Amino acid sequence: MITKVRQHPTQNESLLFETSSPGKIGYQLPALDVPPVDPSEVLGAEYVREEIPDFPEVSEVDVIRHFTRLSTWNYAIDLGLYPLGSCTMKYNPRVNEAVARTEGLMWIHPYQPDALSQGAFAILAELERVLAEITGMDAVTLQPAAGAHGELTGILLVRALLEAQGNPRKRVIVPDSAHGTNPASVRMAGYEVVNVASNDRGMLDTEALARMVDDDVAAIMITNPNTLGVFEEHIIEVARILHSKGALVYMDGANLNALAGISRPGDYGVDLMHLNLHKTFSTPHGGGGPGSGPVAVKKPLEPFLPLPRLQHASSGWSWNYDRPHSIGRVRAFYGNFGVLVRALAYIMAHGGNGLRRATLDALLNANYLRKLLETDYEIAYSAPSMHECVFRHAATGAIAKRLIDYGFHPYTVSFPLIVHGAMMIEPTETESKQELDLFVDALISIAQEVKESPELVQTAPHSTRTNKVDEVAAARKPILKWTR
Amino acid sequence: MLDTIGLSTLEELYAHLPEDVRFHGALNIPSGKSEYEIIDYFRVRGHENANSHANFLGAGVYHHYRPVLVDTVVSRAEFLTSYTPYQAEISQGTLTAIFEFQTMICQLTGMDVANASMYDGSTAVPEAAMMAMRITGREGIAVARTVHPEYREVLGTYTRHQGVPVTEFEYDPESGQLDLESMEQVLNENTAAVIIQSPNFFGVIEDAKRIAEMAHAKGALLVLVFTEAVSLGLLEPPRDADIVAGELQSFAIAPSYGGPFAGIIACKEKYVRQLPGRLVGETKDASGNRAFCLTLATREQHIRREKATSNICTNQALIALMATVFMALYGKQGLRELAEQNLAKAHYLGERLWRRFKGPYFNEFVAATGVQSPDEINHRLLGFQIVGGLRLDRFYPELGNSVLLCCTEMASRADMDAVAEAFGA
Amino acid sequence: MDPEDLRYTKEHEWVRVEGDTGTIGITFHAQKELGDIVYVDLPKPGTLLQQHKTIGSVESVKAVSDIYTPVSGEVVEVNGSLAESPEILNTDPYGSGWLVKIRLSEPGEAGKLLTAAEYHAFVGTESS
């Protein structure tokens, strides 16, 4: 039975371009307090454009209604459980939004004198410190704009260190369960990708790994817990194998929400890792960004971190550009500062103990779901689950869509690639028992529907304003903008 | 819940982890703070920064007014707390807004296709360069020294390890535009892309049409970079370029010490298969109603893995939404008026100072400081709560005693008079 | 189902040899595995191809599959209708859904590829 939702009307809404009428405006500028200039005169007529064809002409009320109506067509964490595996869709505390809009943080220019940015430096320094503490690492760069950008930065750091030792080497090992960004990042850093298979427990096969690692291997990129939600129990052995051949261990920190406060990768052989502040540290996903992907490293990698670095002297904080071994800049300015502010606010609200408690709650929620779903769904690997669990079902795609009718966002479908029919579920610590129980009831009810009325599941969702979308037509004849 | 699982303590949830990987200490992070304490901490940090200063810095980050409605919209939980719109049926809000964003970027730039946004302008540049290499099958990049220096550094970081030769070419010391002869000299049969910025780092507008002809004559593509998106409201769109890579910070995205911003890449239709980043396309649902979805995903890393066009995994959806709301509010007439105000303000101050370059400029220009040093002038301006221009010798050693000044619609006449006075003009 | 007069590869391509020209395509099994095909990337006429090397790709909404040429030679013709209507790869993989025509440089190659019966047996073992 569907208990969480019932249907309610949503309003139709045209595109801005279709509701435009000539001359309508939604802005007001102050009167110009200097003499106007004639653009054609000061620039030359050849540099001045005609009017912008078909650009919107709408009022302020048109704009607010337009976007408010569109917003009601979205699902969101603030509406309920968002169990996307490896995405860590946790509550985004609103105090984070409030502090990010502090006037003296929001309006500061990256090139204003360092003396006028001391508050920003203090925030960055404190965030570097606590992230190093959480990961057990020695130094952190806050510059990467997203997880994938952190991966690229990290692999460039690996290359820089090995180059300094005389040989950058050729290959990076990536487990077959890895997220697609890993191999893509490796390629962008100029390395070849070699895949290593998982064993029947869903973990890295250390014997196979030992045979693969030679003097041409630069690093392994390992996600831990991996994308099956399983902790790589042999991580110390993995590090030993890599280190014995002079190679490094890179950890993808996408799943740090399973470890914060209970396990620190820097303590047991991981040389560097990236973190996703938009996952573990609650900064909002915003429909696909902005994120932030800091990279934490052990001491030997520190000289190679991107430019510039924070430095402190009696006169205060400033930026240090004099770092000859650095890989250089990975982006303009200093990182997604607004996102970094939010992450620090989250960490402050929790404190060390609170972070640990959040992790334990995330493990509790995942294991609770696993236990209650195990009778109706087949768990992909029997190894203990950390913060997420992966089931398998031939109809995973249809079941996911049917969950929408029950008022939930689908779980992650068809990933990791090594599980056919994967259903990857990550509840996070945000969810109450009440919400989890509703979710379990929904999935059990759908398992029944799959047997009794498969057609109902196959054609889901039935309750949304937009039903099954024709992605094939979209890809065959791409329409990527509105035209008159 | 523990009972259901069959455990008695929370600690048992990770008892299967080997002893050596478990962390037994306590994290050295002060205990959890209340909401009030957190707000107070950041308020104090904010006060340690410049506050309520007038600001004449540009150089890739611009002080433009942010209409109130922008934050009203992006604070809607349905936009703020949703994920990448993979599940089209319950993501039509985000998808529709991105489709409008792509459309407006095309209208502004004169390009056929625009992606759903990149991290920022600086990372869009190497992505555009790699895109040009895939299209042409060539491996060299020629970049003007008038492209933002930090963007060029990022290009260097991305390309260095792939063995891609990047050659810089000079600007004309009279006009501040790029030096066509210098450019001609570095182009060869291996040049995949010529990368220029307009208005360039000095605020000077480049002759994109002429440059495009020269690049195309050598079989290279023209990648045009912009950092000041407001200029698109007034200036001839870069339709002679093959690829446009830009930064949208000017469209209601707060300076925020350099991020988060939103970049874009737009291009000619025929290059869409090589375009990195997310794309939203129009289609229909099973009932025949218009619907939108992510499309052409086979270019991307989650399908093509190491053969993908890029490792980029997200766009900057919420930031791009700020720009979308901004473009909708200002609209056809407003963006033009806004750009004209910027032009008028910059020329009000620019024509009173000793400008280094003669080329046409939009809202930034390079001013010589004469016998005074830039620091002396900026120090004096700080006394009036004014942050002065950017010292250029940091990036261009040959441009000693020069600053880059920017005047947006937020520069008041009184403050501009104070700047002129500090320069001794 | 798989025509008797064609030769096949384990990468699920076929070739039809007529004189010194080979026409190549993907098999019924290959298009079925991919699902609705939305895009085909093919080499230009004049391109020199080497047997078993990648020459392009076919894409569905959520998968990409490389195309490997069964035979060596020079591309003489490309099936232009695939750009407009990639779906003919699904509806008629052995007919109007051909990919490219090649002037064979090693005419002996095709004879060593799988026969229809051998390919059929191979697909049977692969899917079981």
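Chain B has 13 helices and 14 strands.
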